[in-house]
Design a protein that fits this description.
Elements (H helix, E strand, L loop, with lengths): L4 H21 L7 H19 L10 E7 L6 H13 L4 E7 L4 E7 L2 E6 L2 E8 L4 E4 L1 E2 L4 E2 L4 E2 L14
Antiparallel strand pairs: 1-2, 2-3, 3-4, 4-5, 5-6, 6-9, 7-8
Helix pairs in contact: 1-2
C-alpha cells in the first residue's frame, strides 16, 4: 500500500468500522449490555470524528504496464518469479509507475498475487474481473482475507460507511 494520507486514513477508518462490528457481534450476558452499548456509542463517536478528518485523494498520473512473464525490479518479487520459472508456472507482472516516481509491482499467477508497494508486501487472491488484490483472501484454503482491497497502483479501495 502506498504511504499516502488517503491510504493511512482509510486503513484506520476500516479498522474502526471493524471494531464497531465486532462490538455489535459479541454476545455478552444481560448485565454487560449497558457497558457494551456504551462502548459501541464511544467507538461510533470515534469513527464519526475520524470520518470528519477524511483527506482528499492525492492526484497521481500512472503509467501502467502488463508484462506476461515480466521481470520485476523488486528483489523479493524476483525471487518469487525465479520459483515460478523453476516450477514451470506462468505469471504476469503488473507495474504501475506514478508521476511521483512511485513504483508498484504485482506478480499474478493462477489467481493469486503478491504486490510490492510502499516498502511492504501484500499476498492474496487476485480478482481478474476488477483487477484488484484481495489481501489475505484464499478461496481454496477457505481464508476470507483481511478486508483490504488494493488496486494495482497500491491504493486502498475503500468507501466510508454512509451510516456513520
Amino acid at each position: 500500500m502506498l504511504k499516502t494520507a488517503w491510504n493511512e486514513w482509510s486503513l484506520k477508518a476500516l479498522q474502526l468500522e471493524t471494531a464497531l462490528l465486532a462490538l455489535e457481534e459479541i454476545e455478552l450476558p444481560e448485565e454487560m449490555h449497558a457497558l457494551q452499548d456504551s462502548a459501541e456509542e464511544k467507538v461510533l463517536e470515534l469513527a464519526r470524528a475520524w470520518k470528519a478528518k477524511q483527506p482528499a485523494r492525492e492526484a497521481r498520473k500512472w503509467e501502467r504496464q502488463t508484462l506476461p512473464a515480466g521481470a520485476p525490479r523488486d528483489e523479493e518479487l524476483k525471487e518469487l518469479v525465479a520459483g515460478f520459472r523453476e516450477d514451470g508456472k506462468e505469471w504476469t507482472l503488473l507495474r504501475a509507475t506514478s508521476d511521483k516516481q512511485e513504483v508498484v509491482e504485482t506478480v499474478v499467477s493462477e489467481g493469486r498475487a503478491c504486490m510490492a508497494a510502499g516498502g511492504e508486501y501484500y499476498l492474496g487472491q487476485w480478482d481478474a474481473k476488477d483487477s484488484v488484490l484481495e489481501v489475505g483472501r484464499d478461496d481454496d484454503a477457505g481464508e476470507p482475507g483481511t478486508g483490504l482491497v488494493l488496486e494495482p497502483t497500491g491504493e486502498l479501495q475503500y468507501a466510508p460507511d454512509p451510516e456513520l
